Amino acid sequence: MIEFRSVTKRFPDGTSAVSNLDLVIPAHQTTVLVGSSGCGKTTILRMINRMVDATSGTIEIDGDDVATLEPVRLRRRIGYVMQNTGLLPHRRVLENIVTVPRLNGMPKAEATELGLRLMDTVGLDRGLARRYPSQLSGGQQQRVGVARGLAVDPNILLMDEPFGAVDPIVRAELQTELMRLQVTLGKTVVFVTHDIDEAFLLGDQVVILQQHAVVAQRGTPGEILAHPASGFVSDFIGAERGKRALRIVETNGSRVVVDADGRPAGVLVDGKNGS
Amino acid sequence: MTWLGSNVGLVAELSLHHVQLSLLPIVVGFVAAVPLGVLAWRFKLTRGLTLTIVGLLYTIPSLALFVLLPPLLGISFLSEANVVIALSIYAVALMTRSAADAFGSVDPVVRRSAAAMGYSSLGRFWAVELPLAGPVLLAGLRVVAVSTVSLVTVGVLVGSRSLGYLFMNGLQRSIPVEILSGIVMTVVIALAFDGILVLLGRLLMPWTRAETTSRRVARRLRLTVGGGS
């Protein structure tokens, strides 16, 4: 569990990114922080592994205040996946994946074995192991990024808009892959995005943020959709428009669900086998 | 041509000596410029100062430096150390700016990602920043190598034995072939240094070739796709 207690972050230039944030991120679940750009969501993420230090307040991981932990050691036990991958361009795919285990002193042969297994885990062909990142497609690079994040088998996985830079089809693939992984791995995932659809798709818990990282609403996707806490939230999730504002129309005795523009989205069926 | 026939030994000996005189300044230039470059790149405070000083050093005329150094360092005007030290100063002056640019060329996203992985700042320097600065460092070093090889010829004015001797001697005795031999050999040595550096770069930085080939492949693919549609 990760717990933020009245955390504030002001940057030296006087801008305040996060003010007085209280937030609990439960273990073994995916928590998605979602908000428009500049709302402080990435800053929240970076405070967890001390890439950014809080100005005041405390952040605890399983009861340990991160401020008392040594940053380099802390970072080596937290997986980190970022936008544009951040892969080391001068290291081959396999070397990139096992960067942190090697930093922790794992022997080379063992690391190679681990790296190849991780490539299987994230659905990468082992034949790509000796390529350089520039020789892979965007989607493949991002898979390498995920494999690298998982390499030390961390309890916590931080993901900073990891699928923001790939095309929609690849993004959908990667999202499915992540959900599949999460079912078996059960990591504490903290995922940052500005895409509300992605947030609702991946999040067990979704945290909608306003400017200065003020929590507008926190809950499961269902709770938020059913009861938006404010005008800001319903605006942000688009509750009153497009494909979220669905209504039922009777045609020829069967019930069709249509969206705000009247385009059919599906039919209503009995039972719960849809879940 | 008769001159060359009877002086091949002299040309060879001067060429060898020329190479020896060039080597040390190039190595010193590189080794000293890397930390200076870091100083100029990492800290705002030292950036202006470092770059101004090396910039000024480079503007001192070589002859003036040959005259200034001996009394300052207590060495003889005619010693080889005089030439080597002067050329090292130029090499450092030229290379430091390249080094600062080289470190500046490292993608900040990659640096941040390396920090997030858990590299310490020293570990990150050796494992990430230095290798990724490599291509720009190499480009700078190639300029330094060629310019040093050509500057060594000036050393003949303070008595050092290099291909510059052929220029002086050929001029005084009006033997064009002798001057030409000097020029050709200087160019050959400069090209050889450059070639060796390029090879070293390929050997030590294999990923740069992967990047250019994948770019080329991507371009060709786009062309084919564009042409086919």
Task: Describe the overall structure.
The complex is a heterodimer of chains A (275) and B (229). Helix content of chain A is 32%, strand content 27%. With 275 residues, chain A is α/β, with parallel strands linked by helices. In chain A, strands 6-7-8-3-9-10 form a six-stranded mixed beta sheet, with helices on both faces. A four-stranded antiparallel beta sheet of chain A has the order 2-1-4-5, with helices on one face. Chain B has 229 residues and is mainly alpha-helical. In chain B, 86% of the residues lie in helices and 0% in strands. Chain B has nine helices and no strands. The longest helix of chain B is centred in the first third of the chain and has 41 residues, at 2-42. The mean pLDDT of chain B is 89. The chains are: A alpha/beta (275), B mainly alpha (229). Chains A and B meet through helix 2 and helix 4 of A and helix 5, helix 6 and helix 9 of B.
Shape of chain B: flat
Q: What share of residues are in beta strands of chain B?
A: under 5%
Mean pLDDT of chain B: 89
The CATH H-level homologous superfamily of the largest domain in chain A: P-loop containing nucleotide triphosphate hydrolases
Q: Which fold name is given in CATH as the topology of the largest domain in chain A? A: Rossmann fold
How many domains would you count in the coordinates of chain A?
A: 2
Give me the Rg of chain B, rounded.
22 Å
Tell me, rounded to a whole number, the average pLDDT of chain A: 91
Q: Stretches of chain B where pLDDT falls below 50 for ≥5 residues?
A: none
Architecture (CATH level 2) name of the largest domain in chain A:
3-Layer(aba) Sandwich
Distance from N terminus to C terminus of chain A (CA atoms, Å) equals 28 Å
In CATH's first tier, which class of the largest domain in chain A applies?
Alpha Beta
- Alpha-carbon distance between the two ends of chain B: 63 Å
Residue share in β-strands of chain A: 25-35%
Major β-sheet annotation of chain A: 6 strands, mixed
Q: What share of residues of chain A is helical?
A: 25-40%
Number of extended strands of chain B: 0
**Biggest interface pair, counts:** A-B, 25 and 24 residues
Task: Specify Rg of chain A, calculated over alpha carbons.
Answer: 21 Å
Structural class of chain B: mainly alpha
